[in-house]
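Bench notes, afternoon.
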Amino acid sequence: MADLLSDRHLRETKIHGELVYEGDFLHIQKDIITLPDGKKASREFIRHPGAVVVIPLLSDGTVLMERQFRYPLNRVFIEFPAGKIDPGEDPLICAQRELKEETGYSAAQWRHLCTIHNAIAYSDEHLEIYIAEELTQGTATLDDEEFLETFSASHAELMQWVRDGTITDVKTVIGIFWLEKILSSIW
C-alpha cells in the first residue's frame, strides 16, 4: 500500500526544454527528461491556459446548449458553453463572462463541480466545470470570430445523444454525466 501512496518511482525529471512554437493561443513545448530508470527521453506537449465549462440549468429543468462548428474536425458539435481563461483571470469570473457572452444568460447561483484534464498525454490543459442555476436571459455578445447557436434540451435527450454518438465532445460528455448525478441527488 505504501507504494500506491508514493510516486517517486514513476516521476520524470526535466533536464531542459524549449518553446518550439508560439501561436496566438497555443504554445508547443519540447523538453528533454530523465526517466525513472535514468534513461533520457523527449516530451512534446501543448501549453494551454485552461478553460471553463458551464452547465446552464434552466428553470424548467432543461439545459442550455450550443451548436458550434469546430474547424479541426470540420463539423458542428453540440457543447456546453465554454471558453479560455484569460491570464490572471479567476475561473469563476471567466465562467460568468463566457455564459453571458455566448448565450446572453447570467446566473444567480454558481457551483464548481470539478477540474478535468482532457488530454494528459499531450497537453497541460485543464477545464473547470461549473453548474449555473437561476438563469436570467439577456443578450449575447459573441466575439468577432465566433458563430454559434443556442438551444435547450432535456437531460434525457442529452443522455441519448451521448449514447448514439451525436455528442462526442469530452467536456460535454463529462458534464452530462455530472448533471445526471446532480439531478438524481446522488452527488
